[in-house]
């Protein structure tokens, strides 16, 4: 059984998560972030899935009901959405990642899975979990932890593992100031992906033990895994061993799109001639809610008023009417008026860009209507006053920001 932890606030995405949890944030033109973990599970042959939700979960739950309702009990399949519902006590929501599993032990036990794969629901990557599960079984480990090889200086924001020559974990520390290096390659570190494989009964025993510890933070990375490292056998599984890459993908692609700049850059990665993440791979599809809508449309063919796009992803139900898109993603239902242009832009569903508007280095939240003639991305000081501007100069524009401008 795969158990997806999808309750994250995503506060570093600022206004982009004002109305939705981070796993529900749109990504890649047609998908949501949570679709990657769920698709990996389905493509890996896992047909029992649970998803724990908590903060601002309505749009996430609605998406999963629409996109992931094809599991059939008669085929020994199941898909459980598990909102925090005070099932253990009337005052207790999910207190941590481990508690989000502990509170649903009875539901998991009813499915009687032999193994549990615990997944974070807010990362973008393609991975065959079956290969990690095989390693777990073959090694006889109590827990197997998915990990990335990253430069040591970049590992300070992760849970980091110290391993021996056999990749057995000898120490696990959360967000260390001086991360331990990898034996034989001290400039690199092993960072946790937030993916864990357990024998189910062993996991239940650990969750109950942890629930009885008044000092615990009820967290896998902070409590459960360090305890097993000290008292049992914890094994590292390297992402390179199970990463799914299409023939033309060069590197192992994994992104935590937790900041505006990281989210912006990961979306624009998809516009490369040879994208680092291939969404066109039919052997490992990213499943999502397939909206019934008209094809994208480009109209007008006059000098200065020609509907066209370069190095861009244009989704269904979009109309590029005498407008220009460059290195941009237009999600479902975006309308661009004549003489408007977007350059390095991530435009979420059902936005409307008025005639003559010029937008550069922007993220538009869903449903935003850009007034005619508005210019963004050419005057940093003006952008700073009107919108949310990131460290790298990317402007996030929401409906509320536009309404405030119109009321001034």
UniProtKB/TrEMBL annotation:
- Per UniProt, alpha-D-glucose 1-phosphate binds at 94, 159, 174-175, 192
Signal peptide range equals none
Q: Which reaction does this enzyme catalyse, per its entry?
A: alpha-D-glucose 1-phosphate + ATP + H(+) = ADP-alpha-D-glucose + diphosphate
| Highest taxon in the source lineage | Bacteria
E.C. code = 2.7.7.27
> What are the Glucose-1-phosphate adenylyltransferase/Bifunctional protein GlmU-like C-terminal hexapeptide domain coordinates in residue numbering?
294-397
Q: In which pathway does it act?
A: Glycan biosynthesis; glycogen biosynthesis
> Which CDD domains does the record match to this protein?
ADP_Glucose_PP, LbH_G1P_AT_C
Name the keywords, alphabetized: ATP-binding, Carbohydrate metabolism, Glycogen biosynthesis, Glycogen metabolism, Nucleotide-binding, Nucleotidyltransferase, Transferase
Tell me the ranges covered by the Nucleotidyl transferase domain, including all copies: 3-271
Q: Where is this site: Could play a key role in the communication between the regulatory and the substrate sites?
A: 54, 93
Q: What class of enzyme is it?
A: transferase
SUPFAM superfamilies recorded for this chain? Nucleotide-diphospho-sugar transferases, Trimeric LpxA-like enzymes
Family annotation (InterPro entries): ADP-Glc_PPase, ADP_Glu_pyroP_CS, GlgC_bac, GlmU/GlgC-like_hexapep, NTP_transferase_dom, Nucleotide-diphossugar_trans, Trimer_LpxA-like_sf
- Give the family this protein belongs to, as stated in its UniProt record: Belongs to the bacterial/plant glucose-1-phosphate adenylyltransferase family.
The annotated subunit structure for this chain is: Homotetramer.
Q: PANTHER family this protein is in?
A: GLUCOSE-1-PHOSPHATE ADENYLYLTRANSFERASE, GLUCOSE-1-PHOSPHATE ADENYLYLTRANSFERASE-RELATED
NCBIfam families listed in its UniProt record: glgC, PRK00725.1, PRK00844.1
Q: What does this protein do?
A: Involved in the biosynthesis of ADP-glucose, a building block required for the elongation reactions to produce glycogen. Catalyzes the reaction between ATP and alpha-D-glucose 1-phosphate (G1P) to produce pyrophosphate and ADP-Glc.
What is this protein identified as?
Glucose-1-phosphate adenylyltransferase
């Amino acid at each position: 059984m795969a158990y997806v932890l999808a309750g994250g606030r995503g506060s570093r995405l600022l206004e982009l998560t004002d109305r939705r949890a981070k796993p529900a944030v749109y990504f890649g033109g047609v998908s949501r972030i949570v679709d990657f973990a769920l698709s990996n599970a389905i493509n890996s042959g896992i047909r029992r899935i649970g998803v724990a939700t908590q903060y601002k979960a309505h749009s996430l739950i609605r998406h999963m009901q629409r996109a992931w309702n094809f599991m059939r009990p008669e085929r020994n399949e199941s898909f459980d959405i598990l909102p925090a519902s005070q099932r253990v006590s009337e005052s207790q929501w999910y207190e941590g990642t481990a508690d989000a599993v502990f509170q649903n032990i009875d539901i998991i036990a009813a499915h009687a899975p032999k193994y549990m794969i615990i997944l974070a629901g807010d990362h973008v990557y393609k991975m065959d979990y079956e290969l990690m599960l095989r390693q777990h079984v073959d090694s006889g480990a109590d827990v197997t932890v998915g990990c990335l090889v990253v430069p040591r200086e970049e590992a300070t924001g992760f849970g980091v593992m110290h391993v021996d020559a056999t990749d057995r974990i000898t120490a696990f520390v959360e967000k260390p100031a001086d991360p331990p290096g990898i034996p034989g390659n001290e400039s690199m570190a092993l960072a946790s992906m937030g993916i864990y494989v357990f024998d189910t009964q062993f996991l239940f025993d650990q969750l109950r033990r942890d629930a009885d510890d008044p000092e615990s933070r009820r967290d896998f990375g902070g409590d459960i895994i360090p305890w097993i490292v000290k008292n049992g056998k914890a094994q590292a599984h390297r992402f390179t061993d199970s990463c799914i890459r299409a023939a033309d993908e060069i590197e192992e692609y994994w992104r935590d799109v937790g900041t505006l700049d990281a989210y912006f850059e990961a979306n624009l990665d998809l516009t490369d001639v040879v994208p680092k993440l291939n969404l066109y791979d039919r052997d490992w599809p990213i499943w999502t809610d397939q909206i019934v809508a008209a094809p994208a449309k480009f109209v007008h063919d006059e000098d200065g008023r020609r509907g066209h796009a370069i190095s861009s992803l244009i989704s269904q139900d979009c109309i590029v009417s005498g407008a220009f898109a460059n290195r941009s993603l237009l999600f479902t239902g975006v309308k661009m008026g004549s003489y408007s242009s977007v350059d390095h832009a991530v435009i979420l569903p059902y936005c409307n860009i008025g005639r003559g508007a010029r937008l550069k280095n922007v993220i538009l939240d869903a449903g935003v209507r850009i007034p005619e003639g508005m210019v963004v991305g050419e005057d940093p000081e003006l952008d700073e006053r009107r919108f949310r501007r990131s460290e790298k100069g990317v402007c996030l524009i929401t409906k509320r920001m536009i309404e405030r401008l119109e009321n001034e």
